[in-house]
Design brief:
Elements lengths: L3 H15 L6 H8 L3 H7 L2 H28 L3 H15 L7 H8 L3 H24 L4 H20 L6 H12 L10
Helix pairs in contact: 1-2, 1-4, 4-5, 4-7, 6-7, 7-8, 8-9
Length: 184
Amino acid sequence: MASRHDWLEEGLGVLGEEGAPALTVELLCGRLGLTKGSFYHHFKGMAGFKTELLRHFAAQHTTRYIDAVEHTGGSVRARLDRLLELVLADEKGSGDPEPAIRAWALQDTEVRATQELVDRLRIDYLRSLWHEAGGAEADALPMARMLYLILIGAGQIAPPVPAEELRDVYELAMRLMPDDGKDG
């Protein structure tokens, strides 16, 4: 029997590989080799599953990264580098659910609310790192947005920007960081 976590991970896999329209009880059951009864044991229909899936996405693709980076500690630059490594390590090409979630958010208010929350959390974290590095207040939000837009944009173009090339772009952007953010 699959756990709730297994179902949610499979849901993210479906999103990343086939998009939101493919997300059905039948497909999930088929991919996991389980019955609908197993699905309904964990969730109250697709609406309940969707709500849990969105929470799971936010936790796995946002708060997990921030918590890991903060747990590791170090200078601002070291934490930004660690954040980039974590995000790039989880990139799965067509298996990445991020583009599918963004597309889904254009059509569904619950998904849009989750995407707005995720975007806000991510930008706020980058903004806090800029402050900690001693960056100018007036530059904090634009810098956080720039760093975030690089990542989101890199995943939205076809084909997505490869990890090594994305690292080069970030390295260029990091030249704007105050000296206090470079070493611990």
